[in-house]
User: What shape does this take?
Amino acid sequence: MELDERKKKILQAVIRNYLETGEPVGSRTISKYTDLNLSSATIRNEMVDLEEMGYIFQPHTSAGRIPSDKGYRLYVDTMMEEKERELVEMKEMKEMLVERQNKIETLLKQVARVLAQNTQYATMISAPRTKRSKLKFIQLSRVDARQLLAVIVIEGNVIKNNILPMDEELNDETLLKLNILLNTHLNGLSIDEINLAMIAMMKQQAGIHSVIVGEVIDAVAEAIRAEEDLEIYTSGTNNIFRYPELADQRKASELINTFEEKQLLGELLQEGPSEEGETGIQVYIGEETPVQSMKDCSVVTATYELGGGMKGTIGIVGPKRMDYDKVVMTLRTIQSQLDDLYGGGGERVP
Amino acid sequence: MELDERKKKILQAVIRNYLETGEPVGSRTISKYTDLNLSSATIRNEMVDLEEMGYIFQPHTSAGRIPSDKGYRLYVDTMMEEKERELVEMKEMKEMLVERQNKIETLLKQVARVLAQNTQYATMISAPRTKRSKLKFIQLSRVDARQLLAVIVIEGNVIKNNILPMDEELNDETLLKLNILLNTHLNGLSIDEINLAMIAMMKQQAGIHSVIVGEVIDAVAEAIRAEEDLEIYTSGTNNIFRYPELADQRKASELINTFEEKQLLGELLQEGPSEEGETGIQVYIGEETPVQSMKDCSVVTATYELGGGMKGTIGIVGPKRMDYDKVVMTLRTIQSQLDDLYGGGGERVP
DNA sequence: TGTTAGCACTCATTCAAGAAGAGTGCTAAC
DNA sequence: GTTAGCACTCTTCTTGAATGAGTGCTAACA
Assistant: This one.
């Protein structure tokens, strides 16, 4: 069977209506509120076809139709209208971001919050992965007799620090040498590029102090590698209660748990989406999502870039009848705003 | 009317039973499952008295009795038995904490998680306030031409850092002087003690570089003062769904929102509880809590200490029929375990 | 005087049956 | 190909009765 223009229009009408109301939509509604000028009976006939094709279904006999995952998919892929939305909202959003945060963490939290407020869905955002960013600056200082403080600054001014316990005391001279050694060798490298050979080489160069130095270098390498666990910030979790289809106890509990145990979100945010259509925006509908607890949700993700190759992912989680148009629009806006504010220069980042 | 021994026993029985079942408890139940050897009729008479005195009430005529806030309060204050609990659980808990975390943040998250798992309630923990802790070490380094990195280590090895943008370039010599200046004057002071006079004095001493230096010092002072917003970690939020009396949509949504907007928890965790009974453990029942959304909950808070005067607060939030004995026990255990692991020495902290 | 047995009464909960309403599928006519 | 009409299905809401837990009160008992 073919999906002709009229069927498409009807499907679109069904979905639009369902997005708004959340109730199964019947033939009469469509007949009345579209410009097709068809009677409900005709609509019914078409609906039977659409159901056979798998785009819509009935929750029970003699109920209206609800879009299936496949239906939503078609809608998102081909029928979504980019409405020219009230750009006011967006401006407000921009203003909220504009007060330039001086910590990346604060910025991300703010983005999540603004998005949640703006869309009324639950949001999440992963901090940019630092693995591929370059080291900019390393400094060891002595905090007290047995403890060193290692401060590592990564491109984009992401700062990591670690206390390294020392078995032996280091004198000032050694410390100075170490600092020089670390900076000459590691500066400009990405974390990926620091390998065993590299470390061995540095140990060798350390000469007399080889043992102590080796220890320190190992610790530093370790410190750099650590924190590799994806940091994720979330907001608007309780927005899920706005949507009855997600608000029942079991589902809500599972969803909230997922948002609390942020690692579970990793699967969605870890892999930069597969470069879909240039924009880096990807839509997962229902079963398509890799996260079990979101089988009844839709998830829209977008990559963002803060300059200097620092990329992260933003995600929005809502009911399947989410306002896809608005969400995609909003994500685009955020993307471009982050780009305006922090992008390009690379060094302008907080 | 007087609360004689028998009334107390009956009240205790009612509360115990209600804690277990969550259902209103009737006279017959009490008559059968206590060693009072009284008929249900007698119990009924006593219950009427207890109701008049405000310790229990009926959710509706011809239902069993439920403890009132006042009833719970009496129970917590005078009738709670410190059961010798399965210490096994506690040992496990200890083991989970023992893998010494090297960041305070990780430790706190872990504590929250372990507590939530152990008690099946929602937990929260505030990071130790750093206001009163002493500065241990300050270092400025040049990251690039126009940016300084300020690293500030506070007693207990809490590390703060900030990027300070500079209008002018600083040469190495000035930087060195600055570092010495900052360390000589600020070391050992608490953040509270850094006042305007202090800063003015330092600016003066900076002599030639007074202007630039002034800028830097202001920025450092600012950086220290910043981050004054209480950091709070939470866990087990979705445990609230275990208790039907909290799981309805409105309440759950409000509670979850409170846990997400962590500032709202500040009131509970900010003020170290008023030194109640030495242990620093405080119980808020129902209306007693300062947080609006928890009017139907009970909250138990405890202060903890990580050595070096670093104090924070742990909170556990559950239904009013929470297992107070267990919660108090568990909090005590955590307190002492944190003390064992990190306390005393003050310098042993991660 | 305190305790108990007994009984009438109240109220929440459960269940079934019925009514209402929404929406469909199908057929026959246009 | 489209539409009107009607029987049919299924959900939801309402009602009323049955059930059962638990109380309050009274009268008898020790």
